[in-house]
């Protein structure tokens, strides 16, 4: 069975950046299970997997625009420490939910602390990076009508509800 929209797909994968560092991998754990065509995984990887079947191996480099987007300097802001009232101790790397420019929620990460200045960054940690995936397709099956309606896979490796 070939990968197409509304298939439940299981993959083993290793994700590396341009420096060759492993960012994420399913090695040693269960395969990643996703619903194809539902935006569960980044668009560049989804495109590369169309038409593949169990046993196929795919190596693909995905540019930022089809991964986590270009790095945007506009998403970096300097806030005053007083805006973090209630947080005992601020540290670089801490993440907070904030309302974004479009009104939606976004996650911001503290990049730098400088006196009362807190420099926060709303970019995805992998924004601006080209990502290389080494993928082996483990299984392809038809998604159930319920999975398609929910936009995700149920059962092992999927949503448990
Ligand atoms: Zn569901």
Automatic annotation (TrEMBL):
Assigned keywords, A-Z: Chaperone, Cytoplasm, Isomerase, Rotamase
Main location: cytoplasm
EC number(s) recorded for this UniProt protein: 5.2.1.8
Gene3D superfamilies found in the cross-reference section: 3.10.50.40
A GO-annotated cellular component: cytoplasm
InterPro entries xrefs: PPIase_dom_sf, PPIase_FKBP_dom
Enzyme class: isomerase
Limits of the PPIase FKBP-type domain: 6-93
GO molecular function list: peptidyl-prolyl cis-trans isomerase activity
Compartment(s): Cytoplasm
Catalytic function, reaction form: [protein]-peptidylproline (omega=180) = [protein]-peptidylproline (omega=0)
Biological process (GO), any one: protein refolding
Biological function: Also involved in hydrogenase metallocenter assembly, probably by participating in the nickel insertion step. This function in hydrogenase biosynthesis requires chaperone activity and the presence of the metal-binding domain, but not PPIase activity.
Family in the record: Belongs to the FKBP-type PPIase family.
Protein's UniProt name: Peptidyl-prolyl cis-trans isomerase
Organism: Phytopseudomonas seleniipraecipitans
